[in-house]
Amino acid sequence: MKSLYARVVFIFLGAVIVSLFLSLLVITRLFESKAVGYIQDETIKTGQEIIASYIEAYPQHSGVLARGISVTSTNAVNFYGPDGKLRHGDSVTARKLIELDPEAVDAVLAGGVYRSNGFGPHGLVVGLPFEIDGQPYAVFLSPTIGPFMGLILRFFQFELLFSLLFGSILILLAAQYIVKPLKKLNAATRRMSKGDFAFELRSRRQDEIGQLTRSFNSMAKELGTLEQIRQRFVSNVSHEIQSPLTSIKGFTKALRHKKMDEEARMRLLAIIEDETERLSRLGEDLLQLSSLEYEHLKLNTGTYRLDEQLRKAVISLEPQWAPKRLRLELELDEFELYADEDRIYRLWINLLGNAIKFTEPEGTIRLTAVREGEAAVVKVVDSGIGMTEDERGSIFEPFYKADPSRTRAAGGNGIGLSIVKRIVELHRGDIAAESAPGEGTTFTVTLPLSQPPANL
């Protein structure tokens, strides 16, 4: 059975049939036990009344009494004398003749009370002793309960039939209630496999299926967001690659087909070299970002002096800030940091390089590092152009550029701050940006001093 609906229906029907069958067995056992005891007690009372009447009618009218009982009573009544033989046999019809073992007759004549073991092969039988003139007699009674038991049996049969019928209808409805949302989830999965994430499944259920539906909606929304990011990422990468390639191609053709002096030729070669450097930096940054996004990335952690690392980063960037005559102010406390030294160094290079790009000539960049409790707090403050609130909320997204024309002139590709954000996250840290147009920008990085970072 490939259909879940059919599986649910057959399983439920099987469970109902088995449970009804077992219930019928249990009820039959309980009913038989109670019914046998009740019928035997009532039959004994009736037998005692018959014995009293028989003793009074004996001997002249005992035969008449026996025939009257045989005709009028629904019970089969057989009398036995001291010799163990049936008395008044001519008044007992074949239908009301009780089949008895001689041992049962002898036991009752000896003064015992006979009770058959349930509904045996000879029916339900009760035997009672009595005496007349000191001689032992016995009377055996067998109530005619065949029609009654047949009625009870038919009642149970109809009960079983109707229970099965109504149970099957309810099971069909219940199975539809269970399977319907799963069918919707299956259809939604097919839509997702084709790249369609713009949907939402509605469910008011509070059970596990309702929770599954809400989780599925959240997953679809997140996958849709990721798909948009992927498409935007591919578009940005294509654009970043296409622009320098177009420039290189155009200037190469110009060098090949146009006559120009040495100065013009060197200028075009310099542009080609710059565009080639842009492509190289883009490739390096993409590889770096890809490696940081690797799920099982392991950091090469160790303890080192943070202040010395920051000074080293400033010195290595001197070819960028010196030509712009920028003033760098350093306030660095001396303390150690437990982290991946190479990746944290890349973090400072990207942050300081970003500050240098967007700070006007003769501007100021202030770098501070202090210890606050069990955390290192590093701030990079520049006097650059600043950012709006909307721009500040997107600066850590790959390829985002607050001012594309200015970023292109400064040689940026919009990946640097994404790398910074990921490195900080890998070290269980935090980064925040404060900025306003024309008032510069402050990046604040907070890193734990000694807690081992998680491999995210």
Short description:
By secondary structure, the chain is an alpha+beta fold. Helices cover 56% and strands 16% of the residues.
> Please, how many domains?
3
Strands, total number? 12
What is the assembly state of the chains in this entry?
A: single chain
Strand content: 15-25%
Q: Given the C-alpha coordinates, what overall shape results?
A: rod-shaped
| CATH class category label of the largest domain | Alpha Beta
Topology as a string of helices (H) and strands (E): HHEEHEEEHHHEHHEEHEEHHHEE
Average pLDDT, rounded to a whole number, is: 79
Largest sheet: 5 strands, antiparallel
What radius of gyration results from the CA coordinates?
Answer: 50 Å
Q: Count of helical segments?
A: 12
CATH-defined fold name of the largest domain? Heat Shock Protein 90
GO cellular component, one term: plasma membrane
Keywords: ATP-binding, Cell membrane, Kinase, Membrane, Nucleotide-binding, Phosphoprotein, Transferase, Transmembrane, Transmembrane helix, Two-component regulatory system, Virulence
Domain HAMP: 176-228
Membrane topology: Multi-pass membrane protein
Descriptive notes:
- With 456 residues, the protein is of the alpha+beta class.
- The protein has 3 domains: 4-148, PAS domain (Beta-Lactamase, 2-Layer Sandwich); 208-289, Helix Hairpins; 298-448, Heat Shock Protein 90, CATH 3.30.565.
- It is 56% helix and 16% strand.
- The protein is built from 12 helices and 12 strands.
- It has helices at residues 4-57, 62-72, 102-109, 146-193, 208-257, 262-292, 306-316, 318-321, 341-357, 389-392, 404-410, 416-426, and strands at 76-80, 86-87, 114-115, 126-132, 135-142, 301-305, 327-332, 336-340, 364-372, 375-382, 430-435, 441-448.
- The strands form 3 sheets. Strands 2-1-5-4-3 form a 5-stranded antiparallel β-sheet, with helices on both faces.
- A hairpin with a 2-residue loop joins strand 4 and strand 5 (135-142).
- Helix 7 packs across helix 9.
- The longest helix has 54 residues, at 4-57.
- It starts with a helix and ends in an 8-residue tail after the last strand.
- This is Heme sensor protein HssS.
- One of its GO terms (cellular component) is plasma membrane.
- It catalyses: ATP + protein L-histidine = ADP + protein N-phospho-L-histidine.
